[in-house]
Amino acid sequence: MSEGGGMSAPRPTSASGEGPTSPRSRVAIVAWLFQALLLLALVAAIAWMVSNTLAHLRERGIHAGFDFLWQPAGFEIGESWLSYESSQPFWRAFVVGLANTVRVAVPGIVLATLLGTLIGLARLSHNLLLRALSTAYVELLRNVPLLVQLLMWYFALTELLPASSDALQLAPGVFLSKSGLSFPWWEAGAFEWPVASEITISGGASVTPEFLAVLLGLATYTAAFVAETVRAGVQSVSSGQVHAALSMGLTPRQSLRYIVMPQALRVIVPSMTNQYLNLTKNSSLAVAIGYPDLVSVANTALNQTGRAFECIAVIMAVYLLLSLLTSALMNRYNARVALRGGG
Amino acid sequence: MSSAPVVARRSAIKWTRDEFFSSPANTLLTLLVAAALAWALPKLANWALLHAVFNADAQACRAIEHAGACWGVIAEKLRAILFGRYPYALQWRPGVGLLLLAAMSFVSAVPRMWSRWLALLWIIGLLLFVALMRGGVAGLEIVPSSRWGGLPLTLLLSLFSLGVAFPLGVLLALGRRSPWPVVRSVCITYIELIRGVPLISVLFMASFMLPLLLPQGWQLDVLLRVLVGITLFSAAYLAEVVRGGLQAVPVGQLLAARAMGLRAWQVQRYIVLPQALRSVVPALMNTFIGNFKDSSLVVIVSLYELTGALTLALGGDPTWRPFYLEGYLFIAFVYWAFCFAMSRYSRWIERRLVSQPTPDRQPA
Fold first, then answer.
1. Chain B residues with beta carbon closer than 8 angstroms to that of A239
2. Are A54 and A110 contained in the same domain?
3. Which of A88, A120, A240, B354 is most deeply packed, by most CB within 10 A?
4. pLDDT, position A343
5. B191 is in which domain, residue-wise?
6. Assembly ipTM
7. Does A145 contact B29 at a Cβ distance shorter than 8 Å?
8. First and final C-alpha spacing in chain B
């Protein structure tokens, strides 16, 4: 077992050394030998792959390195928060892409949380109609790939809506058409209202159908998972607690606020963190419908410069950072909730 | 908060009152939802059924101007959607392959059939499936993997990646709990790294970087590279699921097994893993479903599974392009049927595993 069982044999620490008959030193030597071999094999494998890559690059005459980040990008980005021109360097393009990712992920998280919480609570409702409807929502949306849903949203928003010349008016000053959604926006100390003319809509602020498709697709899809999280959280609080609270004279609203929610949140928060991270990572599917998020910008840069490793490394590094940041933030919140619940 | 002491049998009237009209707020809710349904359902029925065109008649479809669904697009493009760019005359081969997979799935779903032989059956079945798709044996014409597509490709990607990712995930999960620091840190780094990045970046890596990492002259085709990518990705997620199960096994069991003279690997193999895997069946099934849905992403690196096949079938055809929505709804339904069946099955199997006493828990 010294060689074959290596990986699959994490022995219980307390059992390996303390038994009077166990040959502790022999086990320790085998363990360190195995680990040294593993490390050696890993280093060798990585060195082998690096040397292969360098050989390929030499042969194709491709120059490697991150210096291209300071060269002019030379491609346009369809929409952005920050100002950007094609003459600006690649790093700026990546920053613009990242800003676009954040621009869609943050409202997506807010929408998914609101919608998901409502649906999750509806699944626990007394009302059969509401329960059936919310169950149908969850079972429908989470069992169809997000990519298919995004493509559907995009098709519906760009092909089935009227042209901007006869846009749908959803509310005063809110217009929806093939060219996107226009809405009033605070500018220079006053609300600027979009105005519909015979030809197009001007004024106010607007978002593109690409943005809308990614936002709505991500929010409605993630809401199904959020709903399940909320439902599981509330159900994790035993019903005895509610009955006890009611019999002590708390109103149903008070028992929800002071008894159920503080305990449910402890179950909900960690799993909600996962959903938020998933939504952020899933926003990378924007590349499929041409919303210029980080992945889509990096993909363009990759095709233009041929620097596959560098561009993919940028994507991975940024997402790793976002993941770590989100989980750090949520862990702090989680600690607070747990503390308050315990005290 | 549902009331716990429910009356065993309620009369129909009482049931109606409890469910719909128990309070003024509930009554209002019922009326609102009912009104919304009364408004939406007839519209939906009109569009999907009453005004829909069911035969492959593009002119009729155009004439109704989206007032009804054009299901004719599916009648017209069914084979292109299901089999992608697979040569038309040879499409009976993936068809037979699908039937084979369906038969094997039905056999495997029956708990009484679970044995070592089933694993062997799957290995033989999958090899047969690949042989059917690829050809080159028994006088079958060779079809290169670049022409494979549609539903068979979706299933092939999910099944093969899971088949390899599952043992890999178990190893990673065991490694993550290993007392050996090098093994542990390698596993943790791998798992956290993969789980921190989106699948697309892993697919890009597999598609663009893998050829560079291997020596010149080693040609891996796109399908194989993408399979490697999905497998490495799923393994990290499966590892976390399995770890959850491993943590649920009480330490006392390990100590007892060790005290009885079992070797470390025997403890894992016969005591820990069976209990750990059993306790995470629902989570495992969720990962399988996620893996199945994720297979749609390979369209981004130019493999034409179900989603990609639809794009191929409709994207380049101006006659049928306006009816993309119906096409999307069709493949959405196919995905949904698979995923829903898997999740229902997982619930059933979970109940069964819980209700049955396990042999190793029986007192000696």
1. 1-4
2. no
3. A120
4. 37
5. 149-313+330-356
6. 0.88
7. no
8. 43
